[in-house]
Amino acid sequence: MNDKKTLFDKVWDSHVVHHIENGPDVLFIDRHMVHEVTSPVAFLGIKNRDIEVMYPEKTFATADHNTPTINQHLPVEDPLSANQLRMLEENSNEFGISYWGLGHEKNGIVHVVGPEYGITQPGATIVCGDSHTSTHGAFGAIAFGIGTSEVEMVLATQCIMQTKPKSMRINVEGKLNFGVTSKDVALYIISQLSTSGATGYFVEYAGQVFRDMTMEGRMTVCNLSIEMGARGGMIAPDEKTFAYVKGREFTPSGKAWDAVMDYWETLSTDNDAQFDKEITFDAANIEPMITYGTNPGMGIGISNGIPVADAKDSGAATYHKSLKYMNFNEGDSMMGKPIDFVFLGSCTNGRIEDFRLFTSLVKGRKKADNVTAWLVPGSHKVEKAIKEEGLLRILEEAGFELREPGCSACLAMNDDKVPAGKYAVSTSNRNFEGRQGPGSRTLLASPLVAAAAAVTGKVTDPRELMELETA
Amino acid sequence: MAYDKFNILTTSAVPLPIENVDTDQIIPARFLKATERKGFGDNLFRDWRYNNDHSEKKDFVLNNPIYSGRILVGGKNFGSGSSREHAAWAVYDYGFRCVVSSFFADIFRNNCLNIGVLPVQVSPEYLEEIFRAIEANPNALLEVNLPEQTITIKATGSQESFDINPYKKANMTNGFDDIDYLLNIKEQIREFAGNRPL
């Protein structure tokens, strides 16, 4: 028998408290993050059982999903949102959990602040009642979203019950083309695998493209793992990872750092370890991507036309329903399609590098008059960097405003809703029907594609604008 | 929280032959603001079920009085998207105890099992057979037998078996939940935690 282990095996196996015969593993959770929407019923369960939170120091709370992105210093107007936020604060205080509420300097989107403060670490198990928890896999952690029943389990016992998923390795080899970002890599992979292509698997991303990527780029890729159905995705930690993590508030220091480094340096897949499935892509085939339908798998290179449904495909009815919702036709070119909104932000693309990319393209240009743009930093730390690096001045000169941090229009739980029938180019993660507001139509893309749309008012290949600059 | 025991369920079913039904359709994010687990059934499939003025969309299956029952039958890749357990709660609260599809998204399946909704995965061919049986007779009965792990179209006797993890099966047939189990091994967990580096 092959005793070689994958990165995933190493981290998973070291967290199994107990294996239930013919059942799931009892998996120990190192870090648990909670937000206002998926936690109240879990805390209620703890109270109803009259038990304590077992390890409050391993859980961190931040408010992000339903928070407003303007006037955060004022009381939240929507009574239901205000109530959820109050519950999170009360529950955190009652059970001794760190709470970074609205206005707190560390507040931001849960998957942005986790890495920023060193809560996210290699080799850890990290869960949150949010499917984009897969983001933290960028550090070589096993991170995935859980339901509220499981949030309650973690609060009560620091464990959840999970069957070990199958393993898949996705290699992307070569060098990325001009104008192609980590977001395009992820949208490309999902378009090739479909939204259920990795269901039942935990993915390891490998190959030169991911080795070359920054930590923030890796977070964007791992973030979108769930959009192809995977439980999560991870990348082996390397010097970039250790350099990113070092010195952050919740990162071990001194002797403890040396001890964790001994462990972290073992975190890679052994040569000859077997995956249940392995796929390799060539970076040369990836161009800036955009979606045209109502799931993230419906993406194409921006210069391509909308595919024609194969008449024999049993899913043709669903496909046509989707295009009808978008008011697009098979064979249409995406380029030149008019758009109404641009959203830069979310746990997928709300980090400083995303704002740098967006700003680099709008610099010296003007926002198109027909476009409403929402630029929402992922956290106060990102917001601060935008100001300190001088990006805000450039954005304002181009006619853009910066909002305050939160999930915002990614899921439109707050007032940042795209109206029915309107098109939004969004750097977020889901283009489901009504995701950004009832009747809204979402085109997922990278910060560069979003920037090109923002200044031209239509779907535009960012390379055309970038080439003008480099020419 | 513990739920009702699941044994044999014989009922008519509601057909939803659409693929990739995501959790934003099952329950849109703007209806996730409650702090207690109740009332989510009212907003199940909200935007497919109601117009903006809250009137019913007549062509949506839940508004068609000829269909009813405690089983929801959906197209492949049912429940993709968000981890919101509210989606499973909405399905349960509306009155469904079982969802049948040829493929389920992971987290949704897990959430269902954790709250007492049985996800039954069948072959694509059998799924078509179920849709045809309901089309022929909206009152067609399905029998889901958890102890035997079978699903049967009563009118034709056509049957298929389905998989379920034995541990989860025992939980569902007894109405237990995972927390009961975990609380019973708390000392073992404490010992394990003591040896962790983080």
UniProtKB/TrEMBL annotation, chain A:
What Gene3D superfamilies does the annotation carry? Aconitase, domain 3
Which superkingdom is the protein from? Answer: Bacteria
InterPro entries this protein is in?
3-IsopropMal_deHydase_lsu, Acnase/IPM_dHydase_lsu_aba_1/3, Acoase/IPM_deHydtase_lsu_aba, Aconitase_4Fe-4S_BS, Aconitase_4Fe-4S_dom, IPM_dehydratase_rel_enz, IPMI_cat
Q: Does the keyword Iron-sulfur apply?
A: yes
Q: Please list the residue ranges annotated as the Aconitase/3-isopropylmalate dehydratase large subunit alpha/beta/alpha domain.
A: 9-457
Binding note for cofactor:
Binds 1 [4Fe-4S] cluster per subunit.
Q: Tell me one Pfam family matched here.
A: Aconitase
GO MF annotations in UniProt:
3-isopropylmalate dehydratase activity; 4 iron, 4 sulfur cluster binding; metal ion binding
Q: What class of enzyme is it?
A: lyase
GO BP term, pick one: L-leucine biosynthetic process
Which residues are involved in binding [4Fe-4S] cluster?
A: C347, C407, C410
**Could you say which EC number(s) this protein's record lists?**
4.2.1.33
Q: Could you tell me what reaction this enzyme catalyses? A: (2R,3S)-3-isopropylmalate = (2S)-2-isopropylmalate
Cofactor(s) needed for function: [4Fe-4S] cluster
Keywords, A to Z, come to: 4Fe-4S, Amino-acid biosynthesis, Branched-chain amino acid biosynthesis, Iron, Iron-sulfur, Leucine biosynthesis, Lyase, Metal-binding
User: Quick check: keyword Iron in the entry?
Assistant: yes
Please name the pathway: Amino-acid biosynthesis; L-leucine biosynthesis; L-leucine from 3-methyl-2-oxobutanoate: step 2/4
Q: How does it assemble?
A: Heterodimer of LeuC and LeuD.
Family named by the database record: Belongs to the aconitase/IPM isomerase family. LeuC type 1 subfamily.
What job does the chain carry out?
A: Catalyzes the isomerization between 2-isopropylmalate and 3-isopropylmalate, via the formation of 2-isopropylmaleate.
Protein name per the record: 3-isopropylmalate dehydratase large subunit
What high-level taxonomic lineage is stated for the organism? Bacteria, Pseudomonadati, Bacteroidota, Flavobacteriia, Flavobacteriales
From TrEMBL, chain B:
| Gene Ontology molecular-function annotations | 3-isopropylmalate dehydratase activity
Any matching Pfam family: Aconitase_C
Highest taxon listed in the record's lineage: Bacteria
Q: How does it assemble?
A: Heterodimer of LeuC and LeuD.
The signal sequence is none
According to UniProt, this protein's pathway is: Amino-acid biosynthesis; L-leucine biosynthesis; L-leucine from 3-methyl-2-oxobutanoate: step 2/4
Name all Aconitase A/isopropylmalate dehydratase small subunit swivel domain ranges: 6-124
- Family according to the record: Belongs to the LeuD family. LeuD type 1 subfamily.
Q: Which GO BP terms sit in this record?
A: L-leucine biosynthetic process
Q: Per the record, what are the reactions this protein catalyses?
A: (2R,3S)-3-isopropylmalate = (2S)-2-isopropylmalate
Record-given protein name:
3-isopropylmalate dehydratase small subunit
Q: Which source organism? A: Pricia antarctica
- The EC number on file is 4.2.1.33
**InterPro entries in alphabetical order:** 3-IsopropMal_deHydase_ssu (IPR004431), Aconitase/3IPM_dehydase_swvl (IPR015928), AconitaseA/IPMdHydase_ssu_swvl (IPR000573), IPMI_Swivel (IPR033940), LeuD (IPR050075)
Name of the coding gene: leuD
